C-alpha cells in the first residue's frame, strides 16, 4: 500500500495535520490516517503535540 501522506493518530494533532493537508494549496492525492482504537478516542492532553497559531 502507498499514500502521499500518512498520519498516525486521530487526536488533536492528527486531526489538525489532516485538516492542514486537505485545505492547503497543494492537496496530496491520497491521505491515510491510522488509529489504533476508535477515531478521536484517545487522551490528547497527554501527547507531546502542540497547536500554536503563531508558529507559522
Automatic annotation (TrEMBL):
SUPFAM superfamilies, alphabetized: FAD/NAD(P)-binding domain (SSF51905)
Superkingdom of origin organism: Eukaryota
Source organism: Dendrothele bispora (strain CBS 962.96)
One Pfam family hit: DAO
Name of protein: FAD dependent oxidoreductase domain-containing protein
GO cellular component: cytoplasm
InterPro entries named in the record: FAD-dep_OxRdtase (IPR006076), FAD/NAD-bd_sf (IPR036188)
Residue ranges of every copy of the FAD dependent oxidoreductase domain listed in the record: 4-54
Amino acid at each position: 500500500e502507498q499514500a502521499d501522506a500518512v498520519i498516525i493518530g486521530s487526536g488533536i494533532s492528527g486531526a489538525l495535520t489532516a485538516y492542514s493537508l486537505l485545505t492547503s494549496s497543494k492537496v496530496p492525492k491520497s491521505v491515510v490516517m491510522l488509529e489504533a482504537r476508535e477515531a478521536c478516542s484517545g487522551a490528547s492532553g497527554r501527547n507531546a503535540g502542540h497547536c500554536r497559531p503563531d508558529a507559522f
